Amino acid sequence: MGERVLDREFFDRPSHEVAPDLLGRVLVHGPVAVRLTEVEAYGPPGEDPASHTYRGRTPRNAVMFGPPGHLYVYFTYGMHYCVNLVCMPEGMGSGVLLRAGEVIEGVQEARRRRARPGDAAATTGANRPLLDRDLGRGPARLAVALGIAREHNGLDCCDDSGRDPAAGEPRVLEGDPPDAALIRTGPRTGVSSAADIPWRYWIDGDPTVSPYRKHVPKRRPG
């Protein structure tokens, strides 16, 4: 895979331009490396109702208004972390959600992280074995496999100067982008606003891509 670290200029563009270009790139964190196979773009304030920045800057989304190429990590559903890469110039508030990827290095470490407590065999529900394709198949699983959580929010993935490789800080490598003919685009998964904007991008036929799920409004009892 291409070992060159992507520079800040790569991310200093609209998120829907960066997103398809991220496919095939490799996010490395410590011993685990993931080749990205599915991503979603989210636009700036006032333009994209599905974006965390739609209503402006808050303590939660402040990193998205910072320089491009940083990690934006947020907690959702009271149990999961999701990982984004900030796009566009500082102050714009835009990013790309990393939805799925193939673990290409550190498979055993990713498997250990994904194993449920007390489950040495690393199984999923109904005692089904945890397949390699499922290690990073979905945004929450991807974060767990990479060992990324709240404390990594705001870390720089571009600047390699002066950093200690042994520290395991995250970086995005050039990787091996797919042929353009294999890139597909469609509606974003599970969003209630601007759901039809085709800013979800994935590599066609890749087994690590997560299933598409349309948002279903919750019904109140009675």
Write a structural description:
With 222 residues, the protein is α+β, with helices and mostly antiparallel strands. The protein has a single domain, classed as Roll (3-methyladenine DNA Glycosylase, Chain A). The protein has 4 helices and 9 strands, in the order βααβββββααβββ. A hairpin with a 2-residue loop joins strand 2 and strand 3 (32-42). Helix 3 (107-114) crosses helix 4 (139-146). The radius of gyration is 17 Å and the shape is globular.
- The helicity comes to 10-25%
If you average the pLDDT, what whole number results? Answer: 89
* Rg over alpha carbons: 17 Å
Q: What is the helix tally? A: 4
The portion of residues forming beta strands comes to 25-35%
Number of strands: 9
Low-confidence stretches: 118-124
CATH homology group: Methylpurine-DNA glycosylase (MPG)
CATH class: Alpha Beta
CATH architecture: Roll
Shape: globular
Kindly name the structural category.
Answer: alpha+beta
